[in-house]
Specification:
Elements lengths: L4 E2 L2 H12 L3 E2 L6 H6 L2 E4 L2 E4 H25 L5 H12 L5 H7 L4 E2 L7 H12 L7 H13 L8 E5 L2 H12 L6 E6 L13 H7 L9 E4 L2 H14 L7
Parallel strand pairs: 1-5, 6-7, 7-8
Antiparallel strand pairs: 2-4, 3-4
């Protein structure tokens, strides 16, 4: 049912890091200076120890070395989605979304792959073993073609959790086919500040990213709560309990 995934650098690296070491539940109001003294990093109300990123570095550096060799010896042309697929195969952990995406040949695109710890790792790697090239333009074409090459009467649908670069990347790919036929977005961002994250679906209609005759829906809610409920209700109609 899922043809393509698009995420952020955080979506990539935290999926992998959680398979290497635990992330802890904290509080939004914890003081940054105190956390810093303890070697703890806050992501909203989640706490990630510095040691998790050290383990991530130890895990990913040999993989980047291998990718560099394959680039030089076999002519492999790395793109963000190919990098993500490789990491998904390497993690070998069933708690990882990237593992299951790679196993089921579902491409995962990330137009801002370097915008996070994984970018830091590539930066560090460039000192130890310089020369690894990741071709973002090839992925722009691949992502746009995911939508463009869906010939009518076949249709495309977007299920967008949150906002930011991932939301726009999905919408913009559908511009290449004069709009998606279906769109459901779930986030808490509002329109008043002019952000793309807060934009209502009708703004995307004006750009040709959603078809004028479509009936898109935006749900203003916490996606981590709403998405599981939406999936449960969707699949409930076809679910048969084991006897």
């Amino acid at each position: 049912m899922i043809d393509v995934l698009v995420t952020t650098a955080g979506g990539v690296e935290e999926d992998l890091i959680k398979a290497l070491a635990p992330t802890y539940l904290g509080e939004f109001h914890l003081k940054g200076a105190e956390l810093r003294k303890q070697g703890l990093n806050r992501i909203g109300n989640l706490i990630v120890p510095n040691d998790n990123y050290c383990k991530f570095e130890d895990w990913i550096m040999p993989i980047l070395d291998a990718m560099r060799r394959e680039q030089d010896e076999a002519g492999t042309r790395w793109t963000p989605s190919k990098v993500i697929r490789r990491l998904g195969l390497e993690i070998r952990d069933e708690s990882s979304v990237l593992y299951w995406a790679a196993k089921n040949d579902i491409p995962v695109y990330c137009p801002a792959l370097t915008d996070g710890s994984i970018g830091d790792m590539m930066y560090f790697h460039s000192f130890k073993n310089p020369g690894l090239v990741v071709d973002i333009v090839a992925d722009v074409r691949a992502m746009n073609d995911e939508a463009r090459l869906v010939s009518r009467p076949k249709k495309t649908g977007m299920l967008i959790l949150g906002g930011g670069v991932a939301k726009h990347h999905i919408n913009n790919a559908n511009l290449m086919r004069n709009g998606a036929d279906f769109s459901v977005s779930i986030n808490t961002a509002q329109e008043f500040d002019g952000s793309d994250s807060g934009a209502k679906p009708d703004e995307a209609v004006s750009w040709g990213k959603i078809r004028p005759e479509a009936t898109p829906v935006k749900v203003c809610a916490d996606a981590t709560l709403m998405f599981p409920l939406l999936i449960a209700q969707t699949f409930k109609k076809h679910f048969e309990a084991k006897k």
